[in-house]
Amino acid sequence: FGRMLAARNDAELKLDITPFETFKLFPFSIDKLRIKKDYATTDDLKPFLRCRPRSGRIGRYILNPLFHNPKRYVLEGDFTFQPAKMDLKDPCYVHGYWQSEKYFLEIESALRAAFALREPLGSYSRGVAQKISAAENPVSLHIRRYDRVRDPHTVKLFGTTSPEYYEAARETIKAKVKNPTYFVISDDIEWARTNVQTGFPTEFVGQGPDKNHEDLELMRLCKHHILANSTFGWWGSWLSDHYRSGLTIAPKHWNAKFDSRDLLPAHWTVLAL
């Protein structure tokens, strides 16, 4: 979304990566991709952070009336597409997921190029990529568990995608896709090996957080996708060369807090399980 706004305004785009100073769940990985490494400095951020909304009595009644500027520090609010925000002007700071493709379809080609890997795949991933290339209909099946079963806040907000959903998704693949080969990608690969049975040739892939960029690339190489309610899998499907011709299956429930109806592209198959 930021790249789209920069293109529309002929403006400079800088990325705020300061949250990774304290974020521990996954390592910072943007530098593994061809995304331009133009990161905002502390001095760059100061005038925008001053305009952010604050909570609490002092924030609401004293600081916000003095400093809050919703046109300079822009909050997404929820996952629904908000057309008016396509017309934001620089300088501004945009905070959110902005994950509806409606925000960035007009620069689709540039984004796909930016999300390509900077370095070649490692030896293990190259082997998996060859198997994907050799398969008639490679299907990525994404399972996210690490934080979804351990962190109480995340469990409440997202939960885990149900076994009934995965079963229905596999039945949909069976009915619509000839000779599928599954590539199960997960942050808890041993759990997946024990609990996932597809009934078709299956490769289990989970290289850990330090190789998540390679797992994303392997997902992208597949023709069809079964997603968890996870941003990671969303991008794995959206970046695929088969994005429009392949079958992507996604759960309707994405987040207990936000309306996600604009999150899933219209041509994806959505299952309410």
Report on this structure.
The protein contains 10 helices and 8 strands. The protein has 273 residues and is an alpha/beta fold. The strands form 2 sheets. A 6-stranded parallel β-sheet has the order 5-4-3-6-7-8, with helices on both faces. The chain has a two-stranded parallel sheet with strand order 1-2. Helix content is 34%, strand content 12%. Helix 8 (189-195) links the parallel strand 4 (180-186) and strand 5 (202-205).
User: Could you give the order of strands across the largest sheet?
Assistant: 5-4-3-6-7-8
Helix content: 25-40%
How are helices and strands ordered from N to C?
A: HHHEEHHEHHEHEHEHEE
Q: Helices and strands: which structural class?
A: alpha/beta
As a whole number of angstroms, the C-alpha radius of gyration is 20 Å
Average pLDDT works out at: 91
Q: Uncertain runs with pLDDT below 50, 5 residues or more?
A: 152-158
Strand content: 5-15%
Described by the principal axes of the CA atoms, the overall outline is globular
N→C terminal distance: 30 Å
Figure out the total of helices: 10
- Topology, number of strands: 8
Q: How does the major sheet shape up?
A: 6 strands, parallel
Key descriptive features of the protein:
alpha/beta
How does the SSE layout of this entry go?
Elements: H1 2-9, H2 42-49, H3 56-67, E1 73-75, E2 93-95, H4 108-114, H5 123-134, E3 137-143, H6 152-157, H7 163-176, E4 180-186, H8 189-195, E5 202-205, H9 212-221, E6 224-226, H10 231-238, E7 248-251, E8 269-271
Parallel strand pairs: 1-2, 3-4, 3-6, 4-5, 6-7, 7-8
Helix pairs in contact: 5-9, 9-10
